[in-house]
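pinging the channel bc i need a second pair of eyes. not urgent but kinda urgent?? the chain im working w is below, pasted from the shared doc
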Amino acid sequence: MSKFCPSCGNCCEDNQVFCTCCGTKLPDVENQQPTWQSAPQQAPTYNQQYPQQPYNQQPYNTQPVYGMNVGENMKWFKFIIYFQLFAAAVVQIFTGIHLLMENAQFSSQGVSEFFQSYIVTNVIFAIISFACGAWAFFVRSRLAKFKAGAPKLYLIFIAAITVSTLSYVLIVNGIFSSMGFIGANAITIDWVSIISSVTTNIVIIVINYIYFKKRSPLFVN
């Protein structure tokens, strides 16, 4: 067993009496007590504080807009831009074509001079129908891009079709009445269907006005 010098810590043989390094007398092995101790181990501390950087990103806007969340309840809007306005444009274009073909039929039968007012009326409303068809595509484009004022253009479009249809029926009714074709003759006006159609369009205008008013913050482009 080795002995250690109590003065310098030198390792010496167990039979040595004096330290070979510093000359200090070595104690007996059985009485030797180590006089040196290793430095106590200290656990590392992690108390360093790092400055917190402020997070300036704005939170996603989930505030309700007029009682709804932005982006929700847009199924009716999608129906309008993906079906209704396309269908309305096609109907208006075909209506204009039908009116012009009806005029051509009168001309082919050689009776156009007797229905001059009616033919002129058909031409005017054919042009109006083509304009409404083009307007439907324009309104659809504005709505799809969430342009400011697009809902108002859509409501005006529905109102224009309603007024145009009612005006055409009233004018044609007046023309044929003056010619004696109303009443006992074959030409009759289905006022019930006409009034129902006009009433339905008015209700649709009111509903759409309320619908788009709640979503007016969306149309700001």
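so Residues 86 and 132 are 11 Å apart (CA to CA). and The first helix runs from residue 75 to 109. — does that match what u expected or am i reading it wrong
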